[in-house]
Amino acid sequence: MPSRSATPAREIDLESRIGSHWLNRIGITAVLIGVSYFLKYAFDNNWIGPTGRVAIGLLAGIGVVVWSERFRQRGYRVFSYSLKAVGIGVLYLSLWAAFQVYQLIPSGVAFVAMFLVTASTVALAVTQDAEILAAFALTGGFATPLLLSTGENREVALFSYVALLDLATLAMVARRPWRRLLLLSYAGTLVMYVGWYSTFYDHSQITLTIIFATIFFAIFAIAPLVAVAPSGQATVWCALPLFLALVNAAVYFLQVYAMAEVPDRPLMAWFALALAAVYIGLSRLSQKHYADAEGVERLHFLHLALAIGFITVAIPIRLDHHSITLGWFVEAGVLVWVAHRTRSDFLNLFAIGALVLGIVRLLALDNFDTHQVIFNPRIATYAVALVVLGAIIWVGRSRTDETGKRAVALATIAFNVLALYALSLEISDYYSRAMAAAAPLRYQPWDPTRASSWRSLRIAESFSYSALWMAYGALLMIVGFWRRSAFIRWQALFLIAITIVKVFAYDVSQLDRGYRIVSFIVLGVLLLAISFVYQRDWLKLSQKSTAEGSGGA
After folding, report:
1. What is the pLDDT of residues 24-82, one digit of tens each?
2. Is the dihedral of CA 85, 88, 94, 100 positive or negative?
3. Is residue 397 one of the residues assigned to a domain?
4. This prediction's pTM
5. 441 near 412, Cβ under 8 Å?
6. How far apart are CA 407 and CA 395, in angstroms?
7. Taking a C-beta distance cutoff of 8 angstroms, is the pair 273, 311 a contact?
8. Are residues 431 and 518 located together in one domain of the fold?
């Protein structure tokens, strides 16, 4: 239950905020509305001419900015900045009116004047250590091209000016902990770029446009490396450079991809790999020169993630069909090796991600047209996946932590399931081709010989599945005894249990007498052999059980 003194304190704080902030803003708005009504009345009655109107606006804007300094010096910083916002806004609008409404000055003069207003506001922000003024300056700076637009295509002038604003922002965040300005500057750049692109871009301008897009990308890629860390600010503002790095990378790649009328796939793949190399370099640079010591690891990992992401994207862009799956498997294998050498769990996660992408595509999308058993592209693709899974198992065996053990267990299960599924597919394809050749055709007379041959192939296929599963279960059991791994032996027992169910529930009623006899004899011999090994207690399981029981007692 809150104390009685806490409630009055909150009430006083709310009262103070209403009195100092809300009433301040409402009062300024009321004054501006009143003055605007008076000026409109004066303009409508021609009391003041165009030149006078602009002059009044400029003088009023300058006067309000100068007047606001008195309040700042007396400690009323919030009120002072509110007045400055009004004065700066009046200056921009007055210059806009002088150019667009009354045509009193040419566009060059109006641009220089607005640029001076922006530069002066930046100077005030730096000297007074006021982030809010820097935000006013950026807002006015990005509004300048919109206020002075004549509907003409001036790509070089526009993007050179925007790049200058971005560099100014970069300089400010390198000296002050004003990371929020990066988001404002990037948003302004993106609005300017998209607005120009949707109105003026055509394919003949691709070279120059890509150059400017690359300049903008470079500025905001470097920004997280030089941004000064804020002290005592919310975590969300500390994470802004990381968010900006992620968005900047994605937007730049999509910009370049969209600018090509017919994207050159090999060229775009090389472009993605080049971006991956850039981010690998930035990841190394971030460890040496990043200003925020707490953010070194996060930024380093983000750059690595972006590099891996672009490599992963380059594979489907450049390759086709089954080559994409192989490419992801190879990427996963390389990442497993690098992660093992650098002892990086972060890279292990990306290795698993690439492996999962490859397996999902292999199982759900890849359609192999095989004409040969075992020695075909499908088995080769599955073999690469099994090699990567084997590498994960081999690397994980050296780890003693719970995460490493869990990864080895999952990789072992995936290895066995994938191997068994691949071999089962080979049996299915072999008999599918044989049955297609033996099946009676629809419009041919009934041929008992062909029908009998087709049925014999179905029976042989069913027996082949049982034989495969028994053989694989036996192999797993041998490995389990050899490696002294209960986990592998349990997988063998599970597979043998499935085989037992199939033999007793299906084979006994569907197979011919010869296949039925072989199935039961082979299964029985296998079960007796496994039972004999357990009864001989080669693994000393009974001694372990006795020791655990006495220890528990």
Report:
1. 556 656 765 666 666 566 666 676 677 887 788 888 888 888 888 887 777 778 778 87
2. negative
3. yes
4. 0.72
5. no
6. 10
7. yes
8. no
